[in-house]
Every structure is written in C-alpha cells, then in structure tokens.
Here is the input.
Amino acid sequence: MKSAVVTFPASNCNRDMFDALEKITGKTPYQIWHQDSEIPDVDLIALPGGFSFGDYLRCGAMAARSPAIKAIALHAERGGNVIGVCNGFQVLTEMGLLPGALMRNSSLKFVCKTVHLQVENTSTNFTNAYTKGQVIDIPIAHHDGNYFADEDTLKILETNGQIPFRYVSKEGNAIASANPNGSQNNIAGIINERGNVLGMMPHPERLIEDAQGGTDGRGFFESIINTLK
Amino acid sequence: MTKINWNNNPEITDDLVKEHGLSVDEHKLMIKILGRKPTLTELGIFSVMWSEHCSYKSSKLHLKTLPTEAPWVIHGPGENAGVIDIGDNQAAIFKMESHNHPSYIEPYQGAATGVGGILRDVFTMGARPIANMNALRFGSPEHPKTRHLLSGVVEGIGGYGNCVGVPTIGGETNFHPSYNGNILVNAMAVGLADQDKIFLSAAAGVGNPVIYVGSKTGRDGIHGATMASAEFTEDNEEKRPTVQVGDPFTEKLLIEACIELMSTDMVVAIQDMGAAGLTSSSVEMASGGGVGFTINLDNVPQREENMTPYEMMLSESQERMLVVLKPDRVGEAEAIFKKWDLDFAVIGEITETGNLTLLFEGKTVADIPTQPLADNSPEYDRPWIKTEIQPTIDAFDIPIPIDFRDTLLKMINSSDLSSREWIWQQYDHQVMADTIQIPGGDAAVVRVHGTNKALAISTDCTPRYCYADPFEGGKQAVAETWRNLTSVGAQPLAITDCLNFGNPERPDIMGQFVGAIEGIREACTVLDYPVISGNVSLYNETNGTGIHPTPAIGGVGLLKDSSKMITIAPKNEGDVIMLIGECTGHLGCSLYLNIIEGREEGAPPPVDLTLERKNGDFVRTQIQKRIITACHDVSDGGLFVTLSEMAMASGHGMEITINNGDIPIHAYGFGEDQARYVISVSPDNVKGIITAARDANVAIKNLGIVQGNTVNIKNTFTITLNELLDAHSTWMPKYMSNKD
Amino acid sequence: MKARIHITLKDGVLDPQGKAIQHALGTLGFSGVEGVRQGKYIEIDLAETDKSNAAETVEKMCKKLLSNMVIENYSITID
Here is the structure.
C-alpha cells in the first residue's frame, strides 16, 4: 500500500503516523508539506494529530485552508482513502469532507488516557480486520474532541452505519461514564457516506507494538491494506 | 574607545542603581570594568547579568564542590544543558529549571513559559526534545489560592507541552503550607542527539554574522531576571504585566527549524534567549568564545513601537534564539526559517574587540567588555549556620492506631499520597509513540527512537526531610531518584538539580543550602551519579517566611534492552512478594506522623549510601536477569502504602505476613527507612534470589503472595482493591471540583 | 477602516465554556444569571475606504475562515 502523511505547521503526530504506516505496510510513506499543492498517486492520505497552526482560531481551521487541501479533496473525490486522526479529524470536518464539528471537551480539560472503543461496523475500509462488536483499547489525547452534529446529520450517520467507533465501557456499553469528552452518541469516529474518508479522535498509531502496551491499533491499518487486495 | 552616545541618558543615581538590585560595591566594580560611568542600557545589562538568577553569586562557591564528571559525561554544568553518553554515538541532553515567581503571579503563563524555556535549553544544543518532566510544590490544600494555582500550572504545562508535541511523562506534586505564598514550578526536559552533532554557545570567527530568529521582541517580562532574584512581597502581584506570554505554536516551528538548521554544517554557535533575553545570550556567546559582538538594535525584529535599547536588551519575549553562522550561509539559513514562517534577521557580527557593542539609530549606546562582565561577576561567601539536628523519635512513643484499615485509607486518600492521575491525564504523555512506562510508576520510561534502548527519568525531593536535616534530605533526594530508576531496571547515569531555597542573605537559609549541597555531593559521589546541569532559585519567600528547602533532583538512567523494563505491578497470581532492605521502623518526619498524628517533627530517616548502592545494584542485576518481575521502592508512607500501590497497579490482591520482631507493627508498616524495595518473583525463583541476596550480603525477606482481590496483612487489616482504588483516586478530583 | 466581528455559537449548540462561566458566576454570588454563551471577537484593520466593499470582503472572510458555519454565527460592524 502506498501512503502519504501530510504535515501542517505544528502537526506533532506526523512522525508517529509515518512510522506506523511504514512498519505495517512495509513501504515508506510520502511526506507532504502543507504548502505542496500536489500529492503523488497513493492509496491512502493520512492527516496526523497535533496542533496545526497552534489550534488558534479553531482547531484545524487554518490547516483546512492550506494549499495541500485541494489535492486531498481531489483524492477523496476520486474515491481514494483519507484518514484524519485527532487534529486530522478536525481538519476533515473543517474541510467539509466529514459532517459536524469537534468542540471543546465537556470537562474543558485536555484528556490523555486509553479508552475502550467498540467497533460497530466492520464492513468499512478501516475496520474490516476487526470483529463486529469487538471492544478495543486505543489512547486519546485531545482538548477538542466533543463531536457535534445537528439532529438530521446524526440520524443519517446512525442509519447509514457511518459511526464505526464509539466510546464504550469495558463491557461494551455506550454509557455516559465511558464518554471522555461529551461527544454526541459517544461518537469516537465517523466515515463519509461513500466510505472512503474516516475521521477519529483516538490514536491507533500509538498502539501498534507490544512495547507500547498493546496492538489494538494495528487492525485499523491492516483493514485499509485488506481493501486493496 | 568607542564614543558613547549620552543623549537621552538619565543620570545614573545611587537610587537608580539600587532599584536595579546592585549593591554599592557592585556599582563600583561596574565603573571599574567600563572605565567610566555606565549608560542606562549598560546599567540594565549589568543588573541582569549580575542578578542572582544569572550570576549564581550566592551559590557558586558551593556549587563548585559538586561532582560533575564521569566517563559517560560529555558536557557537565556550564552549557545550556548537560550531556551524557548513552552509547551508539547517541547522547541524552537534559536540564531542570525553576519558574517559580512567574507561576505564582500568573500560573498558566508562568508554567507554560517555564516549559518553553527548558525545551529551548535542550534543543539549542542540537537535541530533539523527547520528554518533559516536572516537580511542583503548592501551598496547603486549604489555602484559598492553592486550587487556582494548581489548576493554572497544570493547564499551562499541558497547554505548552501538548502543543509542541513532547510527551510530559511524569513528575511529582507536593502540598505544604510553607509554599502558600511561593509555589515551586520546576520543569525538566530531556533531549536526544548524536554525539557529533552537539552545538555549544561559544561564538567564534571574526566577521561571522549574528542572526536573530524566532518571535519578535516586545516589552514582555522586562526585569524578569531581577524579579526572580528579589524576595516576594504582596506588592509583586501588581507586577502582572511583566509576565511573559508563551506561544507554543512558534516554539514548535522553532524546534523544527533549528533541528533542520543544525542538520547542516552552517552553525558556529547557537544560544536561546532565556532569562535576560538578548543580554545574556549575547554576553554568554561572546565571553564564552573570547570574542566581541557588535549588534545593531535597529535590526532586531520588534513587535511594539518606539522600543528603547534598554527595553530590547532586557525583554524576555519568548521563543527567540541567537545564532552565529558561517560566512556566506545566510541565504541558505534564511530559507529554512522562511519555510517555517519565523522571523530571521542579521543583527550583527563577531568582532575581535571582546566587547558587546550596541548600536541604535547610528549611535553607540553601550560598549561593555564581556569577559569581565561574565567572569568577574560577584561571588559571595555568605555567612551560614548549620541547621540544628532534630531528635530521633522513638517509635514506641507514637501510639499504635486502633484501626489499621482506616489509617491506611486515610493516608492514601490524603493530599500527600493520593493519585496524581487528575494531573497527568491533562498531559499528552504518549505523543512520539515511544512512552513505554506512563506516569504513576517509579520512573517514566521512553524508548530511544528506533533503537531497543530506553531512558528512565524520575524527579524527586522530600522537602520535609530537607527542612529537618538538609544534609540527610539532600542525600535522600538524590538516592530516591537513583532508586526509582533502579526499580524499572535502568542504570542511573546522572542528575540535574533545581535548588529552591529562601533568602540566602539569612544565615539559617544559607545553612540549609550548604547542608543540602553537602548531602547531594556525598550521594552523587557514592552512587557514581554526577550532576551535569542545574539551576538555583533563591529568595523563595514571602513576607519573611521561607519555603521548605527543596533541592529537586531529576535523574536519568539507561536501559540498554528496553524489553527488560518492569513496572510496579506484579503480573501473576501466586507470585511471591519480597522485601529488599531492612526495616527499623523509622517514624520521625514520616507521613504517618504528619497525617495520623498531626506532627511534623523528628529526624528524617538516615540515608546509608553504601547500603543504597549495594541493595540497588542487587535489585537492578536481578531485574536484568529477568528474575524480579515487578519492583517498587519504599518511600513516602512506608511498606503498607508501597504494597497497596503495587496491588492497585496490578489489579491483584496480596496475602502478606509481617514478622515485625521487636518493632511496633505501625512503625514497621509505615516507617520510612531508606534503601528498600518491594519486589515480586515467580515461585520458582524464590530460592535462587534468596541465595543470590545472601551472597551479595543483601537483606531479603519473604512477605507473601499475590492473590485474590483484597490486600490482607495477617492480623493487621484486610482491604479490598476497590476500597483502595476509591480512596486513592478520589482525593484530587474531589478537591479540584470544589470550586470556590 | 476597522471591521469588528463577533462570532457566537448557534442556538442549540452546546457551549461547555459558557456553562462553566455561568456556574462560576453563580458561585461568586451573582444571582439571576439565566444563561451565558461565549464567543470570539476579532478586529481587522483594512486599507479599504469604501464601507460596502469592506463589508463584502469581511463577509467573505467570515464564510471562508473566521467562522465555522456548522456551529457558529457571525455579525460584522464596520467603522
């Protein structure tokens, strides 16, 4: 699988994403600077976590107006896979590639911890390596991960199976105490209607080796590889 | 001699000199160095360079006695940060620094800029920062300001560290009334570099351009360095505008741009503009290299209008660096900073005069010989008196608790021993994806990226011990970091120290400082664990009341094989729990005495460094052999607290039998004797480790096994894991949610 | 010319910061605070001298970058 990682000023998980992709795909990803207006032909474009432009104005707002954005949108339009993790998810909503917005955590505090996610829909490009209903552990680290969308949008996301990941308890219940940031319906990640663009707040790239405390993040990347077979 | 422009220069009166914190003698010395009276800009430069903060004038004499060398030390104190060899041509670069006064005035920005400053100290030397740590002291939880200060400091550390993408992987937090009016915020940064790519600050090469990069200069923090060198009074709270504001976004760009710049061969010298900004960076670079600097202040990028030379030289605007480049490389360097959208300006050049010559609007406004300014800064042998030794408390004089269960629950639900999760969950401790031991254990551990090695880091100090006996306290602070690194399996290599004390002009306070230094020296010597960088923060007092002496120590150790790292959590039911080291039941100065009896008194536990070394080396060897499967050093709260913490971390209970002999059970369980570890081993290895301990002349005792979901200390107490977890985890969130 | 832009959250969008401010005001003893919504205020200095041209430009700025139309409203004054 060929991939590219886009770096914005003050992205800070670009290396982590790069390493995860390189280790799992066995191929060195392209590194794209936000000023680059062209992106090589790849199977996946990844927008990493961080604090692009300092999270000033709104998280992801200024990154979503970078020169590289047009090429990313074009890639998605042609059906190419795009993922956005954490700040990358915020960029995707600011670009309009994904519906809704990510607001300040309901605790008003930055939160870094490992949470339980339930994989609800395993027929997507990003989840097919997991089993349906599987509860996985993935770290989160964000200040603005509180997913918001209007009621109509939420209804569409729910009925179309566009919510592959939800925050749950260890037992797999999407209860309030398992929700780390106040997201509507415990939403941790969403995909677009076409199924080729995914945004999620948790960081699968931080949990791909035993030394990191687990490998639950690998399935995410392996799923994308599976779809290309 | 250069002709000085005296226009618009006020008369330098005695009052003006005094306002700048310089003594009559220092004023005379300044005139002697210049050969004339100073201009206002020069007075400002001398005052910051000779402030306690920059000159270490009260502490230098004693700091010189610390051991700073070892075969693995590449650069000791004197550079921006210390550098040690970690094998494979790689180096770890680290330092800890205080940002106490600014954090008390404006906790968010004070703490944030503290993190920014210490990061710059590390990446200035060519290192990519890979970990942040901190050591925080707040006033009593009951003090009306504590909640606000804690909340602001934690948010500030997180706000800055999270944005720059360097994991904040651990630290320590204490509460004590002695910090009510003077909190301590000590930040440590650790970086990684190749040994042949380490950059120093000494400038060289007459004619080489001097470059300013980073953010623009504003009027922020003018007199920050002198503020940090004066005792605090309530009025200082009015000085809010002098507090600098941090911009972690720019810092992140600066890190990336500097690392890109330093990957080339065009840098001659580089220095961050920390306290006293452009002044200290230019003086240190010039005097360090034995050259002069001519700086044209008109070329300094400015954020505000009509800035004077005095203001530009004293500004503490953040996220700025000074670089000396090789000739003809300016264009290349500029392209890098342009890419990262940072200011870049050629502001001067290296001269052979040895002077710092400042030009402004075509005229010379300052002309100072830098060598005498930097090297002849005052050095005082301040009078001091030895701290009186406290009597040793006999454990038999301390009542035995009626209910051990309640006692233990009360202790782990206290401000001293409760979980710090509320704090470290606000720090991104996993960015860079190399954190292999998160906060909450004995030491935090990060992998050396792309290798099988890892660095263990711990910050420690027990101020109540230092107050009772600065010498033993100084030893203990060093020994505790050494133990914490050992507990995860690392070989301790070196320390950085952040020495926080009261007013050195008071002989009793100076006595605390001298005692602590002696203790640190002895511990570093016996443990082969040199001091490679550090910082001194004096005048930490408000209205004449000093803080507890707090020599915070940051230790760094190496795991050559990161797969051998262990945590405090025993893994398997049936594993055997054992104690390394001797219990004498020392309750003096203990948390038990404080929390349960409400008494802060007695001599602290003595630190037998030979025993520390013997026990620690034994534990580390057994971890390396994969015999020990979990390990936790015994410190605050004693053995029962240590066992409870291990049980909580593992999710398993324990069946423990205590053979306390002649020692009262509460002293055995809550005493704070040093040089001890609780370990777990698989049943198959019990015999072997007992034999090995006997051979090494190390005390070892079988305490019991890992089992069930209660901690059961036979004939003493039984507590379920859930009860423990509830008591341990709830104090801080409850305290912080109680908005006042 | 100077453009002054107020950006506020749309009705119905949860505002945790506003809620926290409301709570804090209550604990400080300010009674009768029935609601708090937090927003942003931005000032822009423009070279433009024609007010309607300026308004048009700033309107574009708001739509393109300064506000997120999914959750925010804006209002502009120019003087």
